[in-house]
Structure formats: C-alpha cells, structure tokens
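User: Please predict structures.

Assistant: First:
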Amino acid sequence: MTPERHHLADLSRLDRGDLAALAVEGLLPPFRDAMTVSRVRATLAAQLLPGIVARPSAPLRAGQVQLGLAFPFRSGGSRVKSAIVVSARQVAGFTDPFVVARGAATLGGALGAALRDLARAAEKLGLRLGVIGSAAMEIATGLPYTTADSDLDLVVAGDAAALEAFAAALRDRADGVRVDVEVLLRSGGGVKLAELVSGSRTLVVKELSDVRLAAREEVVAAL
C-alpha cells in the first residue's frame, strides 16, 4: 500500500530503543523537558505506537517516509508529538482510516456512540467513513487518547449528493460531540466537508506534499 495522509504505519520492524531515540530527537520544541522525554521513553518501552503519515517538513530521500508520533498524554495542555523520518523498509504495513473505523465498537463514551451513529448514517448514504485523530489512535492502540472533551475527527468519501446529506445529518445531531469531517478525494487530497457544502468557489485542498487552493469544479470532479 502506498502511504497517504492519515494512514497509520506499523513500526514493528524498528527496534524499540531505536524508535525511542528517533522519537526523543523529533519531539516538538514544547515537549523537550526531562519529564516528558522520560514519559516518551517509558511509553514506547511498554507499547509500540503506530506512526501517522505526515507531510514532509524537509526534502526526503528516495524511500523515506515522514511520520508523526502522538502520545497518550499531554504537556501544558497540548498533545505530546514527535516528528520522525524512517525508511519505507522499516514499515511493516499501513492501515487506512476506513480499516481503523472497523474497530468503532471498541471506542467508549459519547465519542464512541457518536462514531457508531455516524457510521450507520454514512453507510445508509453509500459513503465510506474512516476515523483519524485521537479516536483512531485509541482504537488502534487501546490507550486512553480521548477524553470527554475530545473532538471526533472523521474522513468520508463518496458523491456530492451523499456528502450534502451527511452534512445535514451532522447539523441535526444533538449529542454535543464536536465532529470535524474531511472529504477524501480520489487524487489523495482532502477538503473540509463544511467548506465543500458551503458553496465556496475556491477550496483549500490538503495533500501529502502541499496545501493549495483549488476551484470547486476540480474538487467535485475528484470526489
């Protein structure tokens, strides 16, 4: 599978110590204090975490992949994150958000209930629905990434009429869970569902290599 945005990377081929060293080296500036570094090392010693395919922050050599590591704890109110680069040969496989969504039954609380309700709504409309963000990490690892205040981050793919209907279903919800939805395009990019249904003539398209503005007609053609 070719890595794309939001895919989870299986890093089981990497030595845990090597992964911890990469993770510590790649910690974002707010998270480089001794206590956070210690927690990062302890977490990776106890359980392997998947990487999240990310936009390269610098040019990569052939065969390299940039990944984000998100940890199940916060520092100063922000999720602790690290940016690492690995060889594609060090990745055992990639899991897309649609496969992650098959584990929706394992996500508890209001977030899990909302996910299952929206998955049923998407299925009725003929849409594919996937999970990203903290809910995806919790489903993938079983670790407590979400809280009662967490947003539910989703991706969907399908035709324009079904996406309009799904957006209406989101507006009609009354469970209080904040839901952020990205529409995945056949080109590999993505646009915010709210922006797509707003009628705007120009949309922000996020791709693995770039973020750009695109005409609405181009986006609709890529659904």
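Second:
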Amino acid sequence: MSLYLKHYFRAMSHIGWSVTILTTSEAKNSNAFALAAEEFKKRRLHVEVMEDVSQVIYSGFFARIYAQFKWWFILKWNVKRIREQVDFDVVFLPSMDYVMKSMSVFGSPFGDIPFCGFFFQARHHLQSCGFRDKWIARKVQKKIFSRCLSIPTFKKIFSIDHTFIHFAKKAHKTEASKLQFVSDFSEISGDLTKAECRDLLDIDKSAIVVLVYGSLTPRKSVKSLLLALRNINAERQILVLLAGKPNDEFLEEFNETIFELPELNNFINSRFFVHTSSDEYMAFQASDIVWIAYSSSFSGSSGVLFQAAYQGLPVIGSKHGLIGYTVTYNNIGVTCNPEDITDVTKTLESLVNDQQLVRKLGESSKKFGETNSPLSHISTVLKVLES
C-alpha cells in the first residue's frame, strides 16, 4: 500500500492537486507514510488524524463487525469536520474493505461527495470462476457488494483482480460502468550485483536461494517449504531466505519446527525485520526463486508476485486461487499444493534441477512485470478521480 501511495502522491503533486489525507496517528507516524509523503509538496498536502479502531473489545467475527461500523461513523464525523475547513471534490479510499459492510447498511459516510476506492478482499466470485473455494458466506458478500454498488455517489470500484471484474460486470450489469480493473505493479531499485548482495547477506554464491518475503505469517506455508527440503534431491545447495517481519503465530510455528528438526537450520537464512527499500532490493537481487505458495485459506493475489516479476524471478505459487491462475496463465513459475509436502518436494525439485526452465520462466516473469507498470495503474486511477 505504501508503494501505491508514493506513486499517487507523486502524480498528484506533479499535476498540482491539493490533497487532504485522513489517517490514523499510527499510520501518520510510520516510516512508510513519511516516505510516501515526501513525494508531495508540503503546501499542497494537508494531513488530518482520526481515531484508530481497536478490535480487542470482541474477538473474531464480532470484532470485525464492530470495527466496520465504528469506522463508518469515524469517517462520517471526520469528513464533516474537515469539510468545514477544506472544500474538496472527491474522496478516494486506497482500500474500502474495512467499511464495505457498514456502507451496505448505512450508505456513504461522505454525504453528497462522490467517492471511489479499491476492493481487495472479494471472494464471492471465486467458485463461479472455477477456483476452489469453500467460503460459506459468498451469498452474503454478493449482497453487500450489490448494495454498495447501488450507492448513487459511488463513482468507481477498483480491483487488481480481473477475474473478479469480469464476474462482477456480468452479475451486476446495471452497475457495470462502476467497475474498473487496474493492473497491480511493483518497484524495486538498487545498483548492487547479485554477488555483492550475497556477500552482504552471507549467502554462498553457488547456492539456489528461495526467497520468502514480506509479512511472515503461517498462511505463507513456510513450514511446508522447510519440511520439503528434508528429502529433496537437488544438485546444488538450497537456501531459504526468510526476509520480513514475522507475527507471533509464525514465530511459534517456526521455533517449534526448528526445535523438532534442528537440521533445517542448514537451509535457512533468516532476516526477521521490516525491510527498507535497500534491504528489499538485496533480498530479491540475491535470490533465484520466490515462494508464494500460500495456504488454501488464502485465495487472493500477492504483491510479492509482482515484486518477483519486476526482478525477473520465477515463482513457486499455490495451485488454487488468483495466485495459481496468474502464475499458470502467464507462465511465470510453477505451482504446488502447499499442504502436500510430497507435491512441494517434487515441484521444488523440478525447478531447482533445471536451470534452463528457471531462465525461461524468469524471462516470462520479466515480461509480465513490464506490462504491469506504475504508469498504467496510476493513470487509470487519476483519470477516474478527474472525471
């Protein structure tokens, strides 16, 4: 999201827009926000802080419902307050997922101001598109989505999932003009060579490096990847580079796995912290393959997929969901069932023992990354905001 904001701010500053940012205190004080805001001239950027919604009052389902409705009222009150000081033409939500349910009940929290935004967590289309999905609430989400579309001031819903847009335009023909596909993208920059990055990360130059990047959670199926390495028949040493900040569940699972199988330490280089742009570049530049085989509970896309494509790296993705579709359709890697250790082992072997295949998939990945550029994404969004 910080990458999106950086490009939005850069483009808006370039064309001379005045922008008011409504965000939480935690987000405003984050390094990611500061880096994005640097793209904007201070005289045209106004930042307002709103209350953060804690989800600790209830657990599970009730926490999410509570948060949705409280966010709606916080947005409504703050937009009304800001409007008394600043006149603005349109509201843009980088993510609408946190208020979709409440908007389906109460309508727009922005009064008569037109608004648009991104919807990332669409799932009610998956089964209709041929993806494996056991989600029992798809009818409820379809109803919620339909009610949101009918809000008169709702200009456009953006999605980076073209299968969802294709499905939604057929399912909601009368509101099809409000649906807009926007290509995802990534951006990684640096000038160090692969060998230099490996020296800095203390990685053997002859090893095949499999990168797991970003927020490290159990859904990334790292345990399956590590267990598969026990019996793999590889011609070269394989090293798993774990680069990102782990959550508590991941650390608990990871530590238990290493405690039971200490020999797995031979396959791991762990860098458990939030990566800066230079850290990020080193991680991808030092790697040969990127792991994005997420568990069956996750059926969406992955920003790491586009980062891999930007660097021209092949991926090992999950067979199911949008990741499986994107990897297979664009021939940018191989897929496996991350919950089947035997399948993971065979898939990994097929890739690491065939350098010609790695190069071929890497070339396809690079082409895929080039067609999903920041310019295409940003120009689509800004065109809607201007209209």
